[in-house]
Amino acid sequence: MPITDAAKKQIAQQRKLFFKICFKCGGKNPISASRCRKCHGSQMRLKNRTLGAKK
Ligand SMILES: [Zn+2]
């Protein structure tokens, strides 16, 4: 089902792109997380891809 609402589409894209990746286990965590939910490591990197960069 394609999303026609531009605002909803934007939110969906942000949910998909804005999260943190744990350095240790590679787990996906919410952007607000300070520690990994899997291994509780504090080292996480942001995954903030610019839209349209996907090949
Ligand atoms: Zn982790």
How would you describe the overall organization of this protein?
InterPro entries: Ribosomal_eL40_arc, Ribosomal_eL40_dom, Ribosomal_eL40_sf, Ribosomal_zn-bd. Residues 3-51 form the Large ribosomal subunit protein eL40 domain. Keywords: Ribonucleoprotein, Ribosomal protein. This is 50S ribosomal protein L40e. By secondary structure, this protein is of the alpha+beta class. The chain has a domain at 21-48. Helices cover 22% and strands 20% of the residues. The chain has one helix spanning 6-17; strands at residues 19-22, 28-30, 44-47. The protein has a three-stranded antiparallel sheet. A hairpin with a 5-residue loop joins β1 (19-22) and β2. It is elongated, with a radius of gyration of 13 Å. The protein binds zinc ion (ZN).
List the helices and strands and how they pair.
Blueprint: H1 6-17, E1 19-22, E2 28-30, E3 44-47
Antiparallel strand pairs: 1-2, 1-3
The structure holds zinc ion.
The site of zinc ion has 8 residues, from loops.
Keywords: Ribonucleoprotein, Ribosomal protein
InterPro entries: Ribosomal_eL40_arc (IPR023657), Ribosomal_eL40_dom (IPR001975), Ribosomal_eL40_sf (IPR038587), Ribosomal_zn-bd (IPR011332)
GO cellular component, one term: ribosome
